[in-house]
Amino acid sequence: MSGTQIVRRNLHDEIAVGLREMIVKGELRPGEKVPEAALCIRFGVSRTPMREAFKALAAEGLLTLVPNRGAVVARITREEVAELFPVMGALEGLAGELACARITEAKVARIRKLHEQMARFYERGEIAPYYRSNRAIHEAIFEAADNAVLSSIFQNLLTRTNSVRFAVKKSPARWAEAVADHEAMLAALEARDGPGLGRILREHMRHKIEMVIEALDARDAAERRRS
Amino acid sequence: MSGTQIVRRNLHDEIAVGLREMIVKGELRPGEKVPEAALCIRFGVSRTPMREAFKALAAEGLLTLVPNRGAVVARITREEVAELFPVMGALEGLAGELACARITEAKVARIRKLHEQMARFYERGEIAPYYRSNRAIHEAIFEAADNAVLSSIFQNLLTRTNSVRFAVKKSPARWAEAVADHEAMLAALEARDGPGLGRILREHMRHKIEMVIEALDARDAAERRRS
DNA sequence: AAAGTGAATAATGAATGCAAAATCGAGTCA
DNA sequence: TGACTCGATTTTGCATTCATTATTCACTTT
Q1: Average pLDDT over residues B118-147
Q2: Which ipTM did the prediction report?
Q3: Of the partner residues B51, B67, B94, the one whose CB lies closest to the CB of residue A8
């Protein structure tokens, strides 16, 4: 066996990866038309695999296909926010429960490290590094849960909600609340209290949705002022 | 406005509907190769929309695309069963909680009717009608939860697990257990006890997974005997 | 000037074409 | 008999073509 694995992939799959990245990075913005021809040139492919990728992303809920008018980046409505986040809460809650049942001592220790790091960034008010540690903790919980189906569905929902989650500007009170949630999470995890951790994660998600709604309200108010 | 709405749909979408139906009905069986050419003839379409439908169904987890070897109906492994069902449990649990918060008196009454009907079918040992009522109850809970995202993800998981769920032959003890679960569900729903209903539904799903594992064990044992 | 009209242009959706890869099968050899 | 070869055939992935549907924009009408 040679070390380098022969990765045989389909073009449409690689394009799908590229498009997902563009959506997450905001190069393609919600509601915007997806420029098929331009993307074909940019990726150096013909329309066939590009359009196949569109179908796949549409099935994932990232694009909306309008008959005879091509593809549009899916736009999240307030109603969908109200639907998506509780689902994410239930899933992350499950991840927490499974993690408590399966996690090793070493991984708990690693999460504690991440948590302490995150707390330091909070103290210093360093937002970007804070988010990085924060995300690492949530990812570590899913990793410990060891459920690929769960992770992939959750990841999909994260991607779909990317634009609205990113719109949030945490107030000091909200930020403190989030850190407090994380303290409780760590305690539950160290006590291997599955139901407890599940409850905290669902609660954490409920706080998140409130922040998102606040952000959407603020954004809409700003838009109304402009017009 | 005329009564007949002009439904403009994409070909690949209609094909996807048709393929999903074939998979659910067992016309295409897990592990089987999906005959592209034959399906093109059957649906009266060219390869392009057929292959687009394949990509969409693959994104849904219903098909597996093997590079240079076309599409295969996704086959559920025991490990995936162990991953999929807890996720379904968490989602149906959420549906129960939401339903308790939102359901109208009339809908509760309808579910009670369905439940009593189902109980009668159980008493008489009529399996097919029992399953019909059973499914109607679960669907009614999702309807009451009024969360389209939740419903569509759950529906997708139902489809993906179709083959293994269908393999289950309930023992009398298991059947009694299921009916008891349903009694508890109705009680929780009538009391609008969201957390309680959530717990019962997760428990109900845990029972389901045990039945599925039993069925898979039996199937594998039978297969081993044959070889 | 604003609203309407229709020809020219662009885009979309689906069928077809073509090169590369996989599969099949007759023939060969151990 | 069973494993192997290698050319023929089929299948697959992607590019290209073609018909249909939107969109644009110069032009008319009020």
Answers
A1: 97
A2: 0.93
A3: B67
